[in-house]
Amino acid sequence: MSNYCDVVIVGGGLAGASLALALDGQGVDVAIIERGSWAERHSEEPQTVHDYDTRVSAVAANSWRFLGEQGLDLQAIRRQPYQSMQVWDGEGTGLVQFDAAELQVDDLGAIVENSVLLATLHDKLKQSRVRTLMLEEIDAIETSESEVRVELKSGQTWCAQLLVGADGALSTIRQYMGVDVVEWPYGQSAIVATVQTERSHEQVARQWFLRTGPLAFLPLRHPSGQFVSIVWSAHEDEAARLMQLGDREFAQALEQKSEIQLGAIKAVSQRTCVPLRQRHAMNYQAKRCVLVGDAAHTIHPLAGQGINLGFADVAVLAEELSRASNRGLDLGSSLVLARYQRRRKTDNLVVAGAMEGFVRLFDQPNPLVRWVRNAGMSTFNKLSPVKRKVARIAMGLA
Question: In the chain, which end has fewer C-beta atoms inside a 10 angstrom radius, N or C?
């Protein structure tokens, strides 16, 4: 016996869960298939570096606005707004700084632990009409002219007009669609951890472009202001060397590369090292399937834009599907899905290209390139109108 709905979403992570809530709010009948379990909410405030999720996101203003529209109580989410962002050339004197006051906004964004945000989304899902199938995996997919049919390993079968792949970088749905993917390794790995610093982060997100890769200090919420999440991207051999260091030696390396801006590193959590690759699906839609978030594209984490691109995908897809539903159109129609692809693909490619350009630019050892780079950063920092325009675009305010 088959179960029917308008849209089946594969993946109950940040992109899939937020899309389900957005569609449910528009009256679209939705089911989610998730191989994991419900995210658990931890109400206790962190006291040590080991109490934080090392996976965090820099969520921009437009993404928070979208989440608020889905009924999330943003004030109840443990997050740390940042009022300023400072970017240095770690091999020179170049500096670019963005300030909320200069842009006449309350903050530039907020750092949130992925597990905290996911638990909030899952709590909201439990209150919605969305049918959420946890601990389920896909066994087979079949597409006909009028529907897509999904068979689960548990024996259940679901039929819908549209199947959404929100199942991450190694997407099963993308594989079924058979679309080409352009991908290549950056030759870098990202080390992520939580550290406690001697001085307060003062609600500032900091980033250094080093010769071997960028290092980010992202502020975390704590009364002392002394906890930050680090994302240290480095050439693979350098990342391997850093992972072999003891905590004290690793802390000393962090102090040196961060120019001791927050004083001594007092504690370091367990470190995780993730190889970095860029991926981009050549088509976001095929066979009554469509891709969002990391299933469609992954980029370098240096600017924390990955999650914001995912939420932008979700917001646009929800808008297009809601419009189609109100007009009585087939939600799995290539004409409907092509509108979503046109609106999102170009923007995603532009951001991916910009991230690639930054990585390659700061990977250049040539002294002349370094001099031009530093001069350019300093000049850009002084061009307030241009800088404000760039910042507002990045925040989704323009």
Answer: N
Is residue 201 located within the same domain as residue 345?
no
CATH number of residue 129's parent domain = 3.50.50.60
The predicted-structure confidence for 158-169, as pLDDT tens digits, reads as follows 999 999 999 999
- pTM equals 0.90
Give the tens place of pLDDT for each residue, 94-130. 667 778 877 778 888 999 999 999 999 999 999 999 9
* Mean pLDDT of all residues in 299-307: 74
Instruction: Name the residue range of residue 29's domain.
Output: 2-38+116-183+277-359
- The pLDDT tens digits for 9-66 are 999 999 999 999 999 999 999 999 999 999 988 778 899 999 999 999 999 889 999 9
Based on the structure, what is the number of domains in the chain? 2
Whether the CB-CB separation of 59 and 18 falls below 8 Å is answered with: no
Tell me what pLDDT residue 372 has.
Answer: 47
